[in-house]
Amino acid sequence: MDTVSAPSASASPDGRFDVMAPACPTRQVVSTLGDKWSLLVLYALENGGTLRFSQLQRTVVGITQKMLTQTLRQLERDGIVSRTVFPTIPPRVDYELTDLGRSLSGVIAELRSWAYAHMDDIETAREEYAASSGG
């Protein structure tokens, strides 16, 4: 007798993806977007429009050249950022959000707003944790 298992609560509406399943490709996307630098790069491009590499590096304070390169490559691979190379000397390279990348704008704004609204609570929780754990 065949049994049909119910989709998990973490599955997509059509049942094709389940972010909690180890082999699900959405894990890689969530990992990229949840990366320390990706959201900051996306925010910079959202607000700055088309930016050159050096402009992005100045805007995302603290990111190294290597991390910015890796982050941009991942975002370009996933179709979230486009890269345009102009045949000048030296070559000019521009980065901008694709339509897919721009579709993340609301999500990024919500996360930023949530962080701003709850930062005092988070800092209090961290202080309480440090006091109770001796750290």
Q: How would you summarize this macromolecular structure in one to three sentences?
A:
It contains 6 helices and 3 strands. With 135 residues, the protein is mainly α.
Could you walk me through the main structural features you see in this protein, from its secondary elements to its overall organization?
There is one protein chain. The protein starts with 25 loop residues before the first helix and ends with a helix. The chain folds into 2 domains: 22-101, Arc Repressor Mutant, subunit A; 104-135. It has 6 helices and 3 strands; from the N terminus they run H-H-E-H-H-E-E-H-H. By secondary structure, it is mostly helical. A 3-stranded antiparallel β-sheet has the order 1-3-2. The protein has helices at 26-33, 38-48, 53-59, 65-77, 99-102, 105-133; strands spanning 51-52, 81-86, 92-97. The model is unreliable at 1-5 (pLDDT under 50). The chain is 53% helix and 10% strand.
List the helices and strands and how they pair.
Layout: H1 26-33, H2 38-48, E1 51-52, H3 53-59, H4 65-77, E2 81-86, E3 92-97, H5 99-102, H6 105-133
